[in-house]
Amino acid sequence: MDPTPAVPAPQLFSLAGQNVLITGATRGIGAACAIALAEAGANICLVRRPSPEGNQPTGSTASAIAALGRTVKIVECDLADLDAVRGLFQTALDAMGGDIHVLVNCAGIQRRSPAVQFPESDWDDVLNVNLKSVWLLSQAAGQHMVPRRRGKIINFCSLLTFQGGFTVPAYAAAKGALGQLTKALSNEWSKDNVQVNGICPGYIATDMNEKLLADPVRLRQISERIPPGRWGEPRDFAGPVVFLASAASQYVCGELLVVDGGWMGR
């Protein structure tokens, strides 16, 4: 592993000249992360689901990145389509001029149902999007980064990487496995100067949690357990993602950074 650069601390967080591939960046946490990475100097390749109309609108995330003067590219891929995922990294690589320095796996889906009724099709969808697509993208990224002896991979895990949750068996299984995959890849690739880490969001006010936010009893129960007394917001991930994408985290390997307002501390 290369040593941490001997530069002034603010420069450690610069991503100038870096190319980032990020999934799940059209809204919520992913959008906030993409904009934060661009603010730190990175050029961004956004992955979005194919548009039903066949067009490719830029969207607010891309517009915000472009307004910063960064290069922004959009590639379309349904992460549930594993054949499409297998070609995604190369497509993004071509779009970014043949080099990607950072991969951020932020996309995810949720399905809720009691375990005794949980549909097999929902299980397959959640595992494919939340785990297998991450593995395929990470493997492709490793094939690109390891020979070059530099790179960062950031996987978005969850509190359910550690806890079981209720009525989300597939999501818990996928996120638990993703935490272990993050450590396994880190064990192999750290020596090649590729740092693989995870970010584990707590309860964040995004559309994925809209059912919980709409349930007054669960909303009160959850909010009372969060020490600051509030749910997180997408912008709370700007600092953590820039840290893990930059030279500031050069000696951080295989970590699962929990960003939860202190929930796990309870």
Automatic annotation (TrEMBL):
Q: Where is the Ketoreductase domain?
A: 18-192
Q: Does the keyword NADP apply?
A: yes
Any idea which UniProt keywords this protein has? NADP, Oxidoreductase
Q: Does the keyword Oxidoreductase apply?
A: yes
Q: Which Pfam families match?
A: adh_short_C2 (PF13561)
A GO molecular function assigned to this protein is: oxidoreductase activity, acting on the CH-OH group of donors, NAD or NADP as acceptor
InterPro entries listed in its UniProt record: KR_dom (IPR057326), NAD(P)-bd_dom_sf (IPR036291), Sc_DH/Rdtase_CS (IPR020904), SDR_fam (IPR002347)
- Highest lineage ranks of the organism? Eukaryota, Fungi, Dikarya, Basidiomycota, Agaricomycotina
Gene3D superfamilies according to UniProt? NAD(P)-binding Rossmann-like Domain
Q: To which species is this protein native?
A: Pycnoporus cinnabarinus
Designated name of the protein: Ketoreductase domain-containing protein
Q: Which family does it belong to?
A: Belongs to the short-chain dehydrogenases/reductases (SDR) family.
